[in-house]
Write a structure and sequence with these properties.
Blueprint (H helix, E strand, L loop, with lengths): L1 H9 L2 H43 L9
Length: about 60
Amino acid sequence: MIKLLKTFRTDEDGAVTVDWVVLTAAVVALAGAAYTAIETGSQTLTASTGAFIIDQAPTADEEE
């Protein structure tokens, strides 16, 4: 029984798994934050571009 406890105490296989889980969670969180920033910026740019195009009036030079 003592040998089993010593082996359990020195076994580090689970610690590596925990490290990978924490690292993966951090990468997913950063990807989510980046996605949110890109989405917000692209929506703003799209709205601004649409408003600019709507405000443009055709000129007389285009009629031929």
